[in-house]
């Protein structure tokens, strides 16, 4: 006996005895609990005992070189006992009508088993040559295969045809029997194809009997309903992926082997070509995100009751939103990424309300190529989303099959990658909108998608609202500190201005030299005017400090600004119109000077800065355009107009904020379009003098729409 044979024999004996012990233990434990299987309880105990004896007989036969009829007899008794158990389980379920077609099958299988016993016993008493023994071996194996196939069919019908409440009780016992007979099916199939008994596979029969014992034991346990195999989606997907890869490799090897059997140089060439092509396909297809997305959708659709693993989705959402530190993404990008990850969307945008209520770009994630206008979504399109929380499939809007009254901006409908529009509503107020790019495995939304997106959208909206509140509180605290500091500055400057004024009056009365007196008066009055102008500008930060509005020729203001930058030839006046606007001349000139100076600072020395004036509806449109370094959407949204935030060394960070506040005081607005590396466009809109009476009505209608 070689070492390998001895090892397999030892394994067969060990597993056989282990299986017998497990079966006997379950039978003893089940004896006082037989009622849990109804009328089949006693039959199950007897079948367990006979299976244990059969396992022991197989272990003894494996250890003994002498042929014996006992293992075959024990296996036949085991099969007949389990056939009787199936019969009793059918009748105990009340399926007496189903027994009519089942009973002839059981009787036929019992007859086959008896025929096998007779043939086996007769051959054990006779001596025959090798050819007759080979035919007898094939016949015995064929009879065993008939019984195992019939047993599997009966087990399948027992479980599938059972009422819903009975399936919970039959799930584990039926699985145990299926494992036992499925193992025998493979064992006898290999034996028939190989023409000899597969000792290596037969050594593992103890595992099948142990699985049967476990199935019967769990099926009789009180807490069997809690013992369910619930693999996670990740494990299922990875297991399925490994199965697909394994199947692919087996198929590749099988075809290669078949080609090698064909022989010849041409067959060898075909084999090598097939292996090369198959390997290339594996390298290209298996890592594909599109293939993985299709597999995930298919598995989710057919293997799970719900599409989403809500625990995993919520943990991932919390990790994405809550990630902090210097290396983390800004909040806006984390928001859109947390929603995009749900659908494996490769990119997303966040739109939030601007000063006028229109949606503007607040953040973009992995979507640099899409061109988003300054007004990404006008105010009139937002009311249906805010009122209903409707999640729009942009493909439906493109085909006209969306909900009536729901509109999307043209730039979104024109971009084929734009897939979904998700409103973020907080306490019946729209705080933002998320645009998702089309994923690789795009599909139609269903009720589960809508439910999950509404919950995530509400949570994201609360994050955005809370962040806005915190920023407002921080800004308010900075303003309080600023007001305290500026109060002292204003007090000191006011005293100084009073002293200068007194000095000027004294000089008018007491100066002896007319030339000196005149020069001193000019100097002092200029200083006094400058200090008073400074006080006026600083007073704008207090209530009631807005300049008086009057009719101002816009062309003259533009000419004054160009005169201010006469030493900068790169400042170009592109267009000018002679129109009259309602504004404060000094404030408007200050705003335009600030915008042009910022454009010069952001541009290269040879890069032009264009200044233009045009008429747009009831407004005058001032435009400052540069091709400098540009600004990111995050900077424009969160930092450009925030006071005390400056990118210049030593800057106070209040210029852009002051410009926007001055325009608001003149009933105007300031819009910004900017792209990093391309440049910026600042647009100032102020009402025409002839259209001043229209603005109260326009503002009233905007409030009604909002």
Report on the structure:
It is an enzyme of class 2 (transferase). The chain crosses the membrane at residues 6-31, 43-63, 141-160, 172-195, 201-221, 242-260, 266-286. This is histidine kinase. Helices cover 62% and strands 11% of the residues. The protein has 706 residues and is α+β, with helices and mostly antiparallel strands. It folds into 4 domains: 3-229, Rhopdopsin 7-helix transmembrane proteins (Up-down Bundle); 235-303; 474-539; 550-705, 2-Layer Sandwich (Heat Shock Protein 90), CATH 3.30.565.10. The strands form 3 sheets. The protein has a 5-stranded antiparallel sheet. Strands 7-9-10-12-11 form a 5-stranded mixed sheet. Strands 6-8 form a two-stranded antiparallel ribbon. Strand 11 (669-675) and strand 12 form a beta hairpin. The longest helix has 64 residues, at 447-510. The chain is rod-shaped and about 155 Å long. Residues 224-230 and 698-706 have low confidence and may be disordered.
